[in-house]
Design a protein that fits this description.
alpha/beta
Length: 284
């Protein structure tokens, strides 16, 4: 992926080396619903969130930054460039429809973090919090992506960011709120299916970003698309369940099968049209 000369985003908040002191109040949308959104790459959010009825209103606890390795510094630069590229893409798309794209913040953290959705540990993987419109990522996750999920490559890493930004787009469009409302009216199996459709749409939106980034800025190199498709496939619910349980329970899927995730990422990258990402009207 050609990224080194790309624009850096001003929306990156670096909390690496910062501590989180005391209990955290948050999670106004609830751990069950939130975990359906943030359990992106096979983490276990069951014991992650410290629930409460109101978002945290205190500033993040700060401490002296610990020195970051050269590889981490390069990754932070990479993430900043990818975020900037998503900003350019979605700003253009929203502008074409007469709307204003509100750029999300991206928080780099290490170990634990306090978000408006509650207290989180890096074991849950990258996530988006709609209450503060921020994407959170511990850069150590990319080691898991490469070795645990067998999905190496910088475009696979970019796909992770683009997927979470896809959730931000859903939040701005009101899709996420409508899904959460519907989930409260149905049983667990149907709620899971709604979550699958939400996640597949975020995959499709990630593909939309890739389409426009390539057309406008020629970011892709040979093998990049395969890297992203491999990442999408590697984190399918069927693959994750087979790896962790030894068997698959389709009705418990919350993110979609490997084939579904690949299909919808392809849909986005081939069409470049968010309107072609209506996973709620199609057979996922």
């Amino acid at each position: 992926m050609r990224w080194e000369f790309g624009r850096r985003s001003t929306n990156v908040e670096d909390r690496r080396g910062a501590g989180v002191a005391g209990p955290v109040v948050g999670g106004g949308i609830g751990a069950v619903i939130l975990s359906l959104i943030v359990m992106f790459l096979g983490g276990d959010p069951g014991a992650i969130w410290d629930q409460g009825d109101a978002p945290s209103d205190r500033a993040p606890t700060t401490s002296t930054r610990t020195p970051q390795s050269t590889s981490q510094d390069q990754l932070s630069e990479f993430v900043s460039v990818v975020l900037a590229d998503t900003e350019d893409t979605w700003s253009d798309i929203f502008q074409q429809s007469g709307a204003n794209y509100v750029e999300p913040k991206l928080v780099l953290y290490s170990g634990t973090v306090d978000s408006a959705c509650g207290f989180a540990r890096s074991a849950m993987g990258p996530f988006y919090c709609p209450r503060d419109q921020k994407v959170y990522i511990d850069l150590d996750f990319y080691q898991d992506l490469k070795y645990r999920y067998q999905a190496p490559g910088d475009f696979a890493q970019a796909y992770v960011i683009a997927h979470e930004v896809g959730h931000h787009v859903q939040n701005l469009l009101g899709v996420a709120d409508r899904v959460r409302s519907l989930q409260q009216q149905v049983d667990r199996t149907d709620a899971n299916q709604l979550s699958v459709r939400l996640e597949l749409q975020a995959d499709c939106f990630a593909g939309v970003w890739a389409h426009h980034a390539q057309r406008s800025r020629q970011i892709l190199e040979q093998g990049d698309i395969e890297e992203a498709l491999n990442a999408a496939s590697s984190i399918g619910d069927d693959r994750l369940q087979e790896r962790s349980r030894g068997y698959v329970v389709p009705e418990s899927f919350t993110h979609g099968s490997a084939a579904q995730r690949v299909r919808w990422f392809k849909q986005g990258i081939q069409t470049g049209n968010p309107e072609q990402c209506n996973t709620f009207a199609a057979n996922p």
